[in-house]
Amino acid sequence: MNPVSSFRTALRFLKRDWKSGELNALTLAVIIAVGAVTAVSFFTNRLENALAQQANELLGADLVIQSDHVLGVRYTEKAKDHGLQVSRLQRFPSMVQSASGNQLATVRVIDDNYPLRGTVYVSSDLFAPDSAAEGVPQPGRIWMEPRVFTALGIAPGEQVLLGEISLVAEKVLASLPGRGGDLFGVAPVVLVNEKDLNATGLIGPGSRIQVSLLLAGKDSDLQNYKSEVSPSLEAGASFQDIREARPEIRVALERAGMFLGLAALTSVILAGVAVAMAARRFAIRHLDHAAIMRCLGATQSFITRVFGFQLLFLGLAASLVGSALGFAAHFLLLEIVTGLLGVVLPAADYKPLLAAILTGSITLIGFALPPILHLKRVPALRVLRRDIGNISTPGRLAYLFGVAALSGLVLWQADDIKLGVYVVLGFLIAIALLALCAWCLLALIRKLRLRGGGWRFGLLHLVRHGRATMIQTVAFGLGIMSLLLLAVIRGDLLDEWQGSLPADAPNRFIVNVQPNQVAPMQEFFTQANVKPPELFPIVRARMVEINGVPVEKQLDDEQVRRQVDRPLNVSWVETLMSDNQILEGKWWDEIEDPSMNLVSIEEGVAKNLKLKLGDMLKFNVAGEHFEVKVASIRKVDWDSFRANFFVLARPGFLNEYPTTYMTGFYLGTENYKLLGDLVKQFPSITVLDVAAIMGHVRDIIHRVSSAVEYVFLFTLAAGLVVLYAGIQSTQDERLLENAIVRTLGGQRNQILQTLLSEFVLLGLMAGLIASVFSGVLAYVVSEKVLRMSYTIDPALVIWGISMGALGVGLAGLWGTRSVLSQPPLSVFRRISA
Amino acid sequence: MSNNTRDPILSVESLSKRVTSPDGELQLLQDINFNIYPAQSVAIIGASGAGKSTLLGLLAGLDTPTSGKVLLDGQDIFGEDEDGRARIRGANIGFVFQSFQLLPSLTALENVMMPLELMGSSEAESKAQEVLERVGLAQRIHHYPRQLSGGEQQRVAIARAFAPRPKLLLADEPTGNLDVRTGEQIIDLLFSLNKEQNTTLVLVTHDMKLAQRCERRLTIDVGQLSEASA
Questions:
Q1: Which residues of A fall within a CB distance of 8 Å from B119?
Q2: Residue in chain B nearest A379 by alpha carbon
Q3: Strand, helix or coil at A86?
Q4: Residues A105-153: tens digit of each pLDDT
Q5: Is residue A216 pLDDT above 60, yes or no?
Q6: Is A550 helix (H, G, I), strand (E, B) or coil?
Q7: Which ranges in A682-747 belong to alpha helices (H)?
Q8: Strand segments (E) across A592-668
Q9: What's the rounded Cα separation, in Å, for the pair A70 and A366?
Q10: DSSP assignment, residue A669?
Q11: What's the CA gap between A365 and B5, in Å, rounded?
């Protein structure tokens, strides 16, 4: 019995099984499993790249090295060696002068490559609608933000003085990449070509200058560069990417990434369930083959080899077909999304393909190998006595093996380990609960001592095949649960995004408002028939001590230390803003002692600085100190784009420090002239236009929403395969039993009733348990992983039950319809052949 | 028992089989002893549930006894493990079943080739083809079992059983699923092949007409064996 003959036998079996449709369920399960995972992974992978790329447009680059001094040429050369695009940006404060005035500005000196990502928006008149700039300011030209024009009392086209040279103030700068990071920076920005820098004579030894090296290129190249350069990064220099620069985009991207990840994981699990169901049926249908071969003298190892090879061929072929289909499907998906959004997505990398093929192999091996291994133990005596050697005991162990394999796969696939652990634990508990509930319900039906017609046979069939019923309930339940879970989280995510970024989210910010300008400014708005925005006071304070110990002695992390190295905007309000939520501690109104100086800290800052309730913090404001106690830790909804603060103080004790005011409000483009009037009346204020940034964020969120919708469709497909495989798994017994009933004179209606009651009840059971559990799981995933608030919706149960009853009921009827149409004898022949 | 000077091909010594059923211990076979000599044809007859199939299963090593021995060509088949018994079957025993037991995934030719291939025969295909021609199925060798009539399926099964030229052929109610006419043709075929190959034939039946065609008839009744004189 050489391996060649088992190889050939396996091929023969495979060919024949394939022709007879025997392998449909298993093949389809693997194909769809692999296909769904391939499509979702490729799509997610490329979409994530695209989203990151788009987010990087806000940064002006994919990666930035920030430094407080001029960087050595080695950084640029190494970047070029890695195939990266490079642009140099230098920033320093300087006075811009005209005949009638002067203004302190942040001078941004750029080279011709700027920006590597994103666009500079300019207009040719103050506050006029803007458009994308072509190139950068040529030597001899300067582009300036509106406030510089108003402060200097000039119009575009006039001359200004920067250092020792005179430049033409050519264009009004509306927005530029990388501006977002210092949204509340005090000085307005002007943009100058690097070729003019020396002539200005502004930069000499000891000048205060900030240098950014902007980098763009392939993700892998960037990673390689970063890991090569990081260890030797000089003091004062650090890497920055979009996730550090803009919290609201970071949150949106992270949540979207997690959801897409969750969808991919769910497809993996559903695929695994489908393969498990199909493999069981495969093994059951091959019990006789194994017994006959044993009888003809085949050894156990021969049997294992034959079926093992068969499985291997099948797995490989189906995985290949699946990944090809998935790859094709992802193009279709991209076509829809990019057609909708008009973007070109970056190329995918190899990882999804590997993930898909591993998914196919691991699910197949995990779930199919144990029953196949059982085939070698089928006693040859089965040729004489059909009743022995049925698949029974290996079931539990086999599924354990499969579940373990699948859990490993999910954890490997999960980019977020926390999410992976929650999903695996959730599904394990769900499997146990589904099985337990199914068992209880079956016990209940057994006790009921039913009487009546066809539906009673249906219920009795469920009870008699208790084991198969339990397996089917678990499978259908997992399917329904996954779909409900994704549907619920998807809905919440979309609602949250849409709700958090309403059309009237603030798109202009005014900072540097002096206390004596607050009342006149509100008057200004009222007269212009615009609702006066709420103005928040700001004291710029630097944190110097935590619990009496200097901060620099407490914080190891360079990045964190830098965070406290610059002044924080501390504001004070009586009532907590609606987009803030207290996580720990109490708001002022619940604290009785009015004498204490209290602050509320944003959770991210609290985490970075390791602050807890009751900590004493010392701040420095222009040489004077004040001490405060941490009374609460707050969650801030950065998605809202409203004015928000890392540190909020109790009103009262900060009044004596130098204060300015700021506000954020929505202003339609039709009202842009109002800003010009405002700046004329209050020349010292700074107006920040974030409309362009908002547009970017809206676009990103829109894209993520579409992606979430489409990816959900794939999970739905995987769910349908589970349904198909689940129905198929007991189809033969049902066909045979109903053929017997028909032989004995059973009417079409009775059989219909039997089948319907059986499948509907199965679906009801699965749907009920699944919906309850998906609610709980959605709660955990929302609150713990996505950090969104979630309220359990009772309608979920109705959805679950109807999905189960209708879906399983109809699919069951369809799957077994041949019993109604085929003469019983042909059913007997087909099943016994 | 008939006297025979040669060594028995099959020797059964004190064979017993007991199983535990919900109603307690059940004695299926009790202290069975007999010898079968090369080229004999033997019918095992008895009522339903008498233990005929249990005995056949034990003779083929498909099941294990509670006590006793079965020697095939002098070798104790229960001294071997499962795989050892499978090898003995492959090399020495052919089977014909009431329900044919063809592999539905394989063609007639491939079904007949299976035992030959399991033995590592290099001429499996030509040998299988030859036997199929012998049983009158030359035109149907590429058909699958479900495309064949019951009689044709049993011919394929017989071809499969004789193809490796077994020393011993075991048949379990070979005509049980066939009509009388087809059954007679199948039996004629079985006996003529048996004669051609000089095979020892042991068949289980409750068809007395079929039993009469055998040289010896062993009757089994409530697990006990007796031999009717020829």
A1: 1, 297
A2: B62
A3: strand
A4: 889 999 998 888 878 889 888 877 788 888 899 999 999 988 788 878 8
A5: yes
A6: strand
A7: 691-729, 731-743
A8: 598-602, 616-621, 624-636, 647-649, 660-665
A9: 57
A10: G
A11: 57
Q: Helix, strand, coil proportions of chain B in percent (round to 5)?
A: 35, 30, 35
Mean pLDDT computed over every residue of chain A? 79
Contacts of A64 (CB under 8 A, 6+ apart): A178, A212, A213, A214, A215, A239, A240, A241
Range with the poorest average pLDDT among A134-143, A192-201, A440-449, A691-700: A691-700
Global pTM exceeds 0.80: no
The answer to whether the CB of B91 falls within 8 A of the CB of B83 is no
Q: How far apart are CA A807 and CA B141, in angstroms?
A: 45
Are B103 and A380 a contacting pair at CB < 8 A? Answer: no
Give pLDDT tens digits for A478-496: 888 888 888 888 777 777 7
CA-based torsion, A304, A307, A312, A313: positive or negative: positive
Q: What is the DSSP annotation of A695-706? A: HHHHHHHHHHHH
Model confidence pLDDT, tens digit, residues A370-429:
777 777 777 777 777 766 666 554 456 666 777 788 788 777 766 667 777 877 888 888
ipTM over 0.85: no
Cβ pair B53:A384 closer than 8 A:
yes
- Residue given tokens 């095992």 in the structure block: B44
DSSP symbols for A358-399:
HHHHHHHHHHHHHHHHHHTT--GGGGT-TTSS-S-THHHHHH
User: What's the rounded Cα separation, in Å, for the pair B220 and B201?
Assistant: 17
Q: What is the CA radius of gyration of chain B?
A: 17
- What was the pLDDT predicted at A701? 65
Q: Is residue A362 within 8 Å of residue A405, measured between CB atoms?
A: yes
**Residue type, position B79, single letter:** G
Overall size of chain B counted in residues: 230
What is the C-alpha to C-alpha distance for residues B30 and B17, in angstroms, rounded to an integer? 7
Mutate to test the interface with A, among B56, B93, B105 (most CBs of A within 10 A): B105
C-beta of residue A816 within 8 angstroms of C-beta of residue A731: yes
What is the tens place of the pLDDT at every residue in B142-179? Answer: 998 888 988 899 899 999 999 989 999 999 888 887 78
Chain A residues closer than 8 Å to B160 by CB: 296
Contact A297 B89 (CB under 8 A): yes
The pair of structure tokens assigned to A534 is: 């709420």
**Do the Cβ atoms of B82 and A13 come within 8 Å?**
no
Q: CA-CA distance, B227 to B220, in Å (whole number)? A: 9
